[in-house]
Amino acid sequence: MRRRTLALVALVFLAAAPALAEPRSWTVDEDASRLAFQATQLSAPFDGAFNSYAADVAFDPNDLPASRVRVEIDVTSIDTGNAERDTAALGPDWFDSANHPTAVFETTSFSGAGDGRYEARAKLTIRGETRDVVLPFTLGIREDQGRTTAQIAGELTISRGDFGVGRGQWAGDGVVGDAVVIRVEITAHAERPAYQSCAKPLHALRLSGVSPQPRARATGPQRSDLAR
């Protein structure tokens, strides 16, 4: 009887082993990934991006409690298509990059909404100020000729004032709007073949990588009021 029980336990363990495995490692497709934002200046929208960041993502739709994401952003890599504005944005009234060169996004929990839609609750730290944020995002994983690709897309709106970005004469929204839309687009490829558990498909995502070197500058207004 004891041998039969031990055999049954071993069988259950082996059947569950794929689901207990560590999330797979993925390689970021640098040319297809982007950490962007949109803000307004004199009521006119302008686009920008951060061209240097490091991401460590472990995500399993079947095990959301064990999933996690941490992104460290080099604020000095800001690119709005206007060199004067970019320089001013790093000054003490804005990002104060001399004292706060890195912004951090780190998740605390995930929830699923079905059809590949999720929400990430996270701590966002900018200029030493940390706030709770919620990032709705979609995740798609596809197989194409033996290659597994994951695509993540999400968007959230923050108040720059909550993080102390824009001080003194820039504290209000008369020149630069307070709302900033952050957009995340990540494409990654699996480093080894996908696998499935005996009971149900498992898409375990672990993505780690560093953003690409700065690409061509984004388009934007040619005249900045930030440096005035």
Would you mind describing this structure in some detail?
The protein is mainly beta. The chain has a single domain (23-210), classed as Lipid/polyisoprenoid-binding, YceI-like (Lipocalin). The protein has helices at 2-20, 83-89, and strands at 24-28, 34-41, 44-50, 53-59, 68-74, 78-79, 102-114, 117-126, 129-144, 147-159, 179-190, 205-210. It has a nine-stranded mixed barrel with strand order 1-11-10-9-8-7-5-4-12. The model is unreliable at 5-20, 193-204 and 218-224 (pLDDT under 50).
State the main characteristics.
single chain, 228 residues, mainly beta, Lipocalin, nine-stranded mixed beta barrel, 2 helices
Short note summarizing the structure:
The protein is 11% helix and 46% strand.
Layout of SSEs?
Blueprint: H1 2-20, E1 24-28, E2 34-41, E3 44-50, E4 53-59, E5 68-74, E6 78-79, H2 83-89, E7 102-114, E8 117-126, E9 129-144, E10 147-159, E11 179-190, E12 205-210
Parallel strand pairs: 1-12
Antiparallel strand pairs: 1-11, 2-3, 2-11, 3-6, 4-5, 4-12, 5-7, 7-8, 8-9, 9-10, 10-11
